[in-house]
Hints:
Helix content is 71%, strand content 0%. By secondary structure, it is mainly alpha-helical. The longest helix has 24 residues, at 40-63.
Amino acid sequence: MVAAGAALADEVGFARLTMGLLAERVGVRTPSLYKHVGGQDDLNRRIAALALNEAADAVGDAVRGYAGRDALAAAARAFRTFVLAHPGRYAATIGQEPSGPEDPLATAGQRLLGAFTAVLRGYDIPEHDVNHALRLLRSLFHGFATLQAADGFQWSTDIDESFEWLIAFADRGLRTL
């Protein structure tokens, strides 16, 4: 049921995802969904955990065997590709707070952070600055990908060229720490 909800969120947008729409999609009555999820909030949290796990897999697989700028570029491209392919399910991740360390949402979020932390090992970043560097990367890559997914770049400059410029900019910044 969660996978169907995630696919529907990608199709119609996360903000438009409802239990009724999901029930219609899977061919059941809305009350039947409650056998699988506890309600809209539960569905949203499960979609968010699914998306974070999928993004962690994509980024982790992409960076394996790379270091430094190559790992940064691989992670950035994998993350962007994921967000563009799954804008609805990725949108579910924004603003969701884990209920505790054992919450699947927390576990999935830590997996994605771990993939980006692995990228940062290729740079000489002091331990006390790692969280700042992670926030920087999230801001850059999340911002670019979500703007692109929302058709926020409506001028003629090539988007891929701009993204490569962003990667180079992040690499230079991380190397100067």
